[in-house]
Amino acid sequence: YYNENTIIFLDGAYVPAQQATASLYNQTMHYGNGVFEGIRAYDTPDGVRIFKAKEHYERLQYSAQVMHIDLPYTAKELELITYKVLELNGLKDAYIRPLVYLGDNMSLTPTAQVHVVIMAWEWGNYLGDKLLKVRTSSFQRPNPKSCFVEAKVVGHYTNSILATTEAKNNGFDEALLTDAAGFVAEGPGANFFMEKDGVLYTAPLGNILAGITRATVLELAKELDYQVLERLFTIEEVKQADSAFFCGTAAEVIGIAQLDDFVFPMEWEDSIGAVIQKKYKRRVAHNEYQNVYI
Ligand code: PMP
Fold this sequence. Notes:
It catalyses: L-leucine + 2-oxoglutarate = 4-methyl-2-oxopentanoate + L-glutamate; L-valine + 2-oxoglutarate = 3-methyl-2-oxobutanoate + L-glutamate; L-isoleucine + 2-oxoglutarate = (S)-3-methyl-2-oxopentanoate + L-glutamate. Keywords: Amino-acid biosynthesis, Aminotransferase, Branched-chain amino acid biosynthesis, Pyridoxal phosphate, Transferase. The protein has 7 helices and 16 strands. It has helices at about 25-30, 55-65, 75-90, 155-170, 210-225, 235-240, 270-285; strands at about 5-10, 15, 35, 40-45, 45-50, 95-100, 115-120, 130-140, 175-180, 185, 190-195, 200, 225-230, 245-250, 250-260, 260-265.
């Protein structure tokens, strides 16, 4: 992720990653109370562009707010800082990781001291580019009554690590998790879509992270005149679908070959997912129809 030349943003300064330090008494490390984002920048014909920076930084602000964290920067300021980090590191296609972590506090109360770090590095597609073998997880996504599932909170990701590890230990590439009521929710770090009879289905908001890529897929599907239903469905229904895919900032759009021992009957190239995948790549890498925010 970094070497002796890497520069990160930390609390108002651009500093070498190798010299940045954090206290071992910080509340984020002990109790998982911190918030973060996962963003991508692309080398477009118009120059380096952060895809949907506004949406990502507004989600970071939402995550901070529900966790009682006082984020000392506006979304716009964070966007400008991020462009500076990319420039200082000579990065064009990059994954960007803003992390808001807290100061020393060993009690379970809000922490006044807030640290903001923004790092970036080159990162290929998180789930690779081959069709995935997915396993239904024995772990469910956190109950929305036990936390804010729509916030990207550090501690929530222990659930994702358990699910990913279980899938990999059983010879699969990725996990698919249900929600606390047993309906299909999402992957450990990506949202899920399936296709059946020419219609796309995805879980409604409420039990899942409101993915920014999911929102982009909904936009693209609308532009392409595909019908999408945001509704609850079961693992059994997925096993009657024609095709399926995951989508997320790190993974982009990636097709799924099978769920458990069920192989999706449609060739990926013939699926709506493949059309969306191509259109997504064009949108992010060619800066196509992006909101001009800067
Ligand atoms: N679900 C979870 C649990 C995630 O961690 C992510 C990645 N942030 C996503 C879905 C996809 O969200 P996005 O498209 O905003 O990256």
